[in-house]
Design a protein that fits this description.
Elements: H1 2-8, H2 21-27, E1 32-42, H3 46-54, H4 57-64, E2 70-77, E3 85-94
Antiparallel strand pairs: 1-3, 2-3
């Protein structure tokens, strides 16, 4: 999704092709029971991105959800401004 966002030039939970997180998890053959996604663009490192998310009620809820047992993260240099980083964090849990 991080690469897709760079191609579209937007920060969105919707992919260039209209996909949402559920569609992307299915396309990756991840048998998920739950999933959540946090996005950020900032001139910051991973620790600062997490601090920003913790300051947002929705992002904080994603980070603290007890059912999330797996995560994947992507960091890319923002194509529009190389001093800024684009962060994508996906949290989830597999189906039993």
């Amino acid at each position: 999704h991080g690469q897709d966002l760079q191609v579209c030039g937007v920060l969105s939970h919707t992919g260039c092709d209209g996909s949402d997180l559920a569609a992307r998890l299915r396309a990756a053959d991840f048998p998920y029971r739950s999933g959540a996604e946090n996005l950020a663009v900032c001139a910051c490192d991973a620790a600062e991105a997490v601090r920003l998310w913790m300051g947002s009620p929705g992002h904080r809820a994603n980070l603290l959800q007890p059912e999330a047992t797996l995560m994947g993260a992507d960091r890319r240099t923002d194509a529009a401004d190389p001093r800024r980083e684009q962060w994508v964090l996906v949290l989830g849990r597999e189906r039993p």
